[in-house]
Specification:
NODB_dom, hydrolase activity, acting on carbon-nitrogen (but not peptide) bonds, alpha/beta, globular, signal, about 300 residues, seven-stranded parallel beta sheet, Glyco_hydro/deAcase_b/a-brl, binds zinc ion
Amino acid sequence: MKTKYIIAILLTLLFVAGCQTNDETELNDQPSEPAQESSEDAEKDVEEVDSEEETKDMEVEDSDETKEEDETKEEASDIEEQKQKQTPKYKMNDLFGFDPIDDAEEQVVLMTIDDAPDQNAVEMAEILTEMNVPAIFFVNGHFIESEEEKKALKQIHDMGFAIGNHTYDHKNLKELTEEEQREQIVPLSDEIEKIIGERPIFFRAPHGANTDYAKELVKEEGMLLMNWSFGYDFKADYMDKEALTTIMLETELLGNGSNLLMHDREWTKEALPDIITGLRDKGFGFIDPSEIQTKDS
Ligand SMILES: [Zn+2]
């Protein structure tokens, strides 16, 4: 509503001020352009005519201009965010891979980085960002205790990556009492929320060791529990850039919707660009975690 109102005022201004007709044409020709672009363009024109006396009685006040522009942007990104949440494109299957919903692209994989943010996560996030690849970083509580570590988590989140809960101390949940399992999961979500402003919506158990209790708890906490399709960087044979790149690209487990497990490790960081390039060469795209259905439909 507000956007339409602003555009209406600005269009009126353009007519009153007798601006060039090509400005009007530009606006009229692109009704489907994002509102913020149109209103920004129009606002430039408003600034030009503002110095003229005849616009004084118009309802657009100089001091409100920036605020209104910000609000318009905020509104637009909120709508975009909501739209994505309302229309998930991928649903996780029983093997923790992803099936497309409707006509979503089939040949895609999900990138996940566990045991973050240790020594390499920020750099890995930078590589992913540079190569335009979304991912989930699964975080442990013992890695976000110092101010520096908290900052690293915030930085990764601010770069646009999804943050997942990987338990506080990386213990095997099957060896813990129910109360101990809860202590590994809920306080970590609280802590993550304190740092990034939102609770994680993805959960992965250390070693993929899930208990019935943890599954139920994770669901109550509004998180989607996932293991993975394949991963190799924790095995001695693949703690090396070349060996890891080769296996990640050549494994017969790689297929449409695969859920790729990687870790915050130096050799994985080194292999990451080649793994991404190799996947793209094979025709794979990457699932944006925000496109994953997290609630039962
Ligand atoms: Zn782990």
